[in-house]
Amino acid sequence: MADFPHLDASDRQIVAALQVNGRASWRKIATALGASESTVTRRGQQLLHDRAVAVTGVLDHLRCGLGISIHVRLRVRPGRALQVARALAAHPRPRFVAVMTGSFDVTAEIVVRSHRDVMQVLSELDRIDDVVESESMVVIRKFSALEEWNPSTLDGHTVDVLGAGAEVTDYAHRDWTTPEQLTGQDFAIARVLASNGRASYATIASLVGTSESTVARRVESMVQRGCLRFRTVFESPTVGYDVEYLLWLEVAPAQVEEVGERLAKHPATRYVAAATGRHNLILQGVLAGYGDLYPYTTEVIGQLPGVQSADLTLQVQALKRAWVPIGDDGRPQPREYS
User: Across the chain, where does the E strand assignment appear?
Assistant: First the structure.
């Protein structure tokens, strides 16, 4: 089990602020938290240096027509879950990989160009030693994404200050129908931001061979159109959430929209999406402790309309998030610019 970085209350507040706005300046974070800029700058830079947290730029593949997401669950031979997860995480396709307990042992989110590629991917996974069964679900709509989650450790005023001046506050996933088109320059900028989501415009301009003003304009355009998002990567125990889980729901089709929207607004939800297959809603969430699991299951999930079955699986260890590898020590590992 990962030995997660130990953060004090001040560091947790900084991580929470980065979750709300990964590219917020240290000055803005200091203002929002009511702390000195020098202290926030020093501690924030140390958190990034120690890899307790990382910020990465992520292209929304659904929004940009770059591919679709498949959620895969694998059942493996006893005692081989971590080895299978490591093999999956080493593959370039998966953007998320984790070991879990429950009905399946390993889960992954994999991006493919088309649903026609699903069988090829599944055949690749079945060739991994010790995989005995797989189940796949294709995402067809997102209700909320991980980068939109508010850890609830910050009050409303603080969140408002962090969001002031941000290009987008509501991604309105369901309003997106026609994919946006990106230029070669956009992709070059996005590659730099994938390696370092807090890279300055000057740094990006130097690496891609253009002007700062052009970089600023292209980044703003991609963010406004919902193409580019900034994901703050950290393990939930570092900010006080000891339980991370994945919930696989079978919901009557007429209630999928309502249930998805309701779950997207719940403070425990980090991600929820509609999918094809037996489980047509998939959710990733966090809770403060194990004592919260029972009331969450009975009072939150149990009260949702149209839920026909619910499979709750607990996450044991993440090995990859937003294409960022996660070390055995629970720290995000560097993504190299290429």
Answer: 54-59, 68-76, 94-101, 106-112, 131-144, 228-233, 243-251, 269-275, 281-287, 307-321, 324-325
